[in-house]
Specification:
This protein is mostly helical. Among the domains are: 24-100, no CATH class; 102-136; 138-200. 77% of the residues lie in helices and 3% in strands. The chain is built from eight helices and three strands, in the order αβαβααααααβ. It has helices spanning 3-18, 29-41, 50-75, 78-100, 103-136, 138-185, 189-196, 209-240, and strands at 21-22, 47-49, 243-245. A three-stranded mixed β-sheet has the order 1-3-2. The chain is flat.
């Protein structure tokens, strides 16, 4: 174990032992605000940190109170719910009516809609071509069409060549796989394990192994130093944000809330 790791654990243990505890007075306004936030969010911690406690008291509890007394009554009122049901009916009624039709009828409607959509796209494309021909002239338009066809032909040729190359590579890969399968079938069990990588032959020491060991040790020391730095910051934060004991009538309750660090 490195010195940094020992120091990190010692700093953390000393910080835990020296961390102060703050208990808000019973029935005080901050405690009531914090308990209101607990009730609104459904959390049940019996311990929190000082900084988070006051963030809740000054920010989150007032926001929850405003939301509970303005937004929730507004969106749960009868007019808003009636509007929501009306919007849902507008969107759901056509869908339900469509689903209630026979399967063949729905298939026919889908096919007709697809044909209409394709016809509209064809008309739009034809209109674009006619507009282009009128604007640039028939001769220039034919030249543009021939140039586009030439480009498409070149692209098709490139795709065809690459397809042939890929097919040739797949055939070579299948051939190599067959040859490897035959080679593996001709080996003994121990030779087969070595060939497929299940066993490794004895390896001779390499000249750079000692440098790898030093590098590994250095990286571990760097990691332990970073952990030490984090623990130092954590312990210093504990000095500013001590623990807050939340009074409760259930002393055996499990802490599943936000305790901070």
């Amino acid at each position: 174990m490195s010195d940094f790791k020992d120091k990190s654990e010692q700093v953390l243990e000393d910080g835990k032992a020296a961390r102060a505890t703050f208990q808000p007075p019973v029935d005080s306004a901050p405690l009531r605000a914090y308990q209101y936030w607990l009730k609104s969010t459904g959390r049940e911690p019996f311990r929190d940190n000082f900084c988070h406690f006051w963030r809740v008291v000054l920010i989150w509890a007032p926001l929850h109170w405003v939301a509970d007394h303005t937004l929730v009554p507004l969106f749960t009122s009868r007019p808003i719910r009636a509007v929501g049901r009306g919007i849902a009916w507008v969107f759901q009624k056509p869908v339900r009516s469509y689903k209630a039709l026979h399967y063949d009828t729905r298939k026919t409607i889908g096919n007709v809609a697809a044909y209409i959509f394709m016809a509209l796209l064809a008309l739009l494309f034809l209109f674009a071509l006619v507009s282009l021909a009128v604007k640039i002239g028939v001769v220039n338009f034919l030249l543009v069409i021939l140039g586009a066809l030439a480009i498409v032909a070149v692209l098709f040729g490139v795709v065809w060549v690459f397809g042939r190359i890929a097919e040739h590579n797949r055939a070579k890969a299948r051939l190599r796989a067959d040859e490897r399968r035959k080679y593996l079938n001709s080996l003994s069990y121990d030779e087969w394990r070595l060939a497929v990588g299940l066993d490794s032959p004895p390896r001779k020491p390499r000249w750079y192994d000692k440098y790898l060991a030093k590098l590994d040790k250095g990286l571990k020391n760097v990691g332990d130093f970073l952990v030490l730095a984090v623990n130092v910051v954590r312990v210093n934060k504990w000095k500013i944000c001590p623990l807050v004991e939340i009074p409760d009538s259930q002393p055996n309750r499990v802490d599943n809330g936000v305790t901070g660090w």
